[in-house]
Design a protein that fits this description.
about 130 residues; mainly alpha; 5 helices; Plasmolipin; MARVEL-CKLF_proteins
């Protein structure tokens, strides 16, 4: 939802006049679509049908890549906000987009942390391991 906000806020400005916002648009649209696809995969439990794929590793790599690219998107978006823009609402929307890009970056960072824990199996203990054996 937050990535969609970044996308909508940037798209509602004159982003085509600034090349930096093209990168922010690419990152927000690309990872929003991929996140929705992963959500559908987990919602329909397709990961159980494609058991050969190491889903915990795939999710870890996806979240790590999203974190790194959203860091660059946030920095780009925040650096390109100009308080002296000729349209005041462009400034407000771009500043809000930078704020929400920061929130998305933090969210993907937390997802990377939890995906790493799931990949390493750090959330289990000896009792739960004995039950499944």
């Amino acid at each position: 939802v937050l990535g969609l906000l970044v996308w909508a806020l940037i798209a509602d400005t004159t982003y085509y006049l600034h090349a930096a916002y093209g990168w922010v648009m690419f990152v927000s649209i690309f990872f929003w679509i991929l996140t929705v696809l992963f959500f559908v995969v987990y919602l329909l439990q397709l990961q159980l049908k494609f058991y050969v794929i190491p889903w915990s590793l795939v999710l870890l790599l996806f979240n790590a890549a999203a974190t790194v690219l959203y860091i660059s998107g946030f920095v780009t978006c925040a650096a390109a906000v100009q308080p002296t823009s000729w349209r005041q609402w462009d400034y407000n929307r771009r500043a809000a987009a930078a704020f929400f890009a920061c929130l998305v970056m933090i969210t993907y960072g937390l997802s990377t942390f939890f995906s790493f824990r799931a990949w390493k199996g750090l959330g289990s203990n000896a009792a739960t391991d004995q039950v499944s054996a």
